[in-house]
């Protein structure tokens, strides 16, 4: 059996309020609402499982009906939960307010409880972690947990990936020794807060992270595409223009596509094409997961978005 990707971080219920007209601050706006399974690490794990990649999710669930539902969604998709944590209390929730065009207006995160994913919990599950092909953590987890995973990665040689999530959690990475980190995936808003010289140019910020020992920086620039930057090479790919229905989970999807590419032994250029194709598909559906895609269907779509 192939080694799993192990995803560590948030599992949430996503409630998305999609405005049907322009949002007026401090006033009432009409909207439609959807409930889907979410959380950055959970989304990535779910999408990878649907694409045929073996995956384990280490996350926190409440002992309420939402927690039971989230676990069922995960296991039905093929995500294994051998090291999950169940608490006495409410399951975490992400409440997103979306503009008419599907872009994010604002969002709220409650009861995520990812602080319970401690180094002690990971040490208890070390034998599981040692089976991983890649380990991914979202930046919602504790600094101490991230540092433990970095040290574990250096000792075992298992590549470790950090997804910054958003500006507030990304800012904690500024004070961490990132030497040996395989991949960091910031967007143009998250990059400055990870760096010590936040007011400098993008190039200087990327150079700082390379000097701090990050092996690869995957910089996301929205409609302008994305770039994987290492000391020895740079790989860029433009974004495809699509009609956006819902922006939720597109970044998570791109990382899922990248990991699928690595699972299949692809180089960075082909991994980016798979990543961007999957993100484009997610932008055109409600929710954070492209449930309509199998691995074969996704790979068949790559030439449509990126013809040779």
Descriptive keywords:
308 residues, alpha/beta, UDP-N-acetylmuramoyl-L-alanine:D-glutamate ligase, five-stranded parallel β-sheet, four-stranded mixed β-sheet, 14 strands
Characterise this structure.
The chain is of the alpha/beta class and 308 residues long. The protein is built from eleven helices and 14 strands. The protein has a five-stranded parallel beta sheet, with helices on both faces. Strand 13 (226-229) and strand 14 form a beta hairpin.
Summary, kept brief:
This protein has 308 residues and is α/β, with parallel strands linked by helices. The chain has one domain: Ribokinase (UDP-N-acetylmuramoyl-L-alanine:D-glutamate ligase).
How are the secondary structure elements laid out?
Elements: E1 5-8, E2 12-19, E3 31-38, H1 40-50, E4 55-58, E5 60-62, H2 65-77, E6 85-87, E7 93-98, E8 104-110, H3 119-124, H4 126-129, E9 134-138, H5 143-156, E10 160-163, H6 167-170, E11 183-184, H7 190-194, H8 202-211, E12 217-220, E13 226-229, E14 234-237, H9 250-263, H10 268-283, H11 295-305
Parallel strand pairs: 1-4, 1-9, 2-7, 5-6, 9-10, 10-11
Antiparallel strand pairs: 2-3, 7-8, 12-13, 13-14
């Amino acid at each position: 059996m192939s080694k799993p990707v192990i995803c560590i971080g948030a599992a949430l219920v996503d409630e998305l309020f999609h405005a049907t007209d322009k949002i007026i601050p401090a006033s009432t706006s009409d909207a439609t609402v959807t409930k889907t399974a979410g959380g950055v690490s959970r989304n990535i794990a779910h999408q990878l499982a649907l694409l045929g990649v073996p995956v384990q999710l280490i996350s926190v669930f409440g002992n309420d009906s939402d927690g039971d539902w989230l676990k069922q969604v995960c296991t039905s998709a093929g995500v294994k939960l051998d090291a999950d944590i169940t608490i006495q209390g409410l399951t975490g929730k992400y409440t997103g307010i979306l503009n008419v065009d599907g872009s994010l207006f604002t969002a709220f995160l409650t009861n995520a409880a990812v602080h319970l994913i401690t180094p002690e919990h990971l040490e208890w599950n070390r034998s599981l972690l040692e089976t991983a092909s890649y380990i991914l953590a979202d930046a919602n987890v504790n600094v101490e947990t991230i540092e433990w995973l970095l040290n574990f990665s250096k000792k075992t040689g298992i590549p470790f990936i950090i997804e910054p999530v958003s500006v507030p959690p990304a800012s904690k990475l500024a004070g961490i020794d990132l030497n040996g980190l395989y991949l960091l995936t910031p967007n143009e808003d998250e990059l400055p807060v990870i760096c010590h010289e936040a007011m400098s140019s993008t190039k200087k910020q990327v150079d700082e992270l390379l000097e701090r020992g990050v092996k690869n920086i995957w910089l996301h620039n929205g409609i302008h595409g994305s770039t994987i930057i290492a000391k020895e090479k740079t790989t860029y790919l433009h974004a495809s223009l699509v009609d956006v229905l819902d922006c939720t989970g597109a970044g998570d999807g791109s990382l899922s596509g990248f990991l699928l590419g690595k699972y299949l032994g692809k180089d960075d250029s082909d991994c980016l094409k798979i990543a961007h194709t999957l993100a484009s598909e997610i932008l055109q559906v409600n929710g954070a997961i492209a449930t309509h895609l199998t691995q074969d269907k996704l790979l068949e779509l790559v030439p449509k978005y990126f013809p040779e």
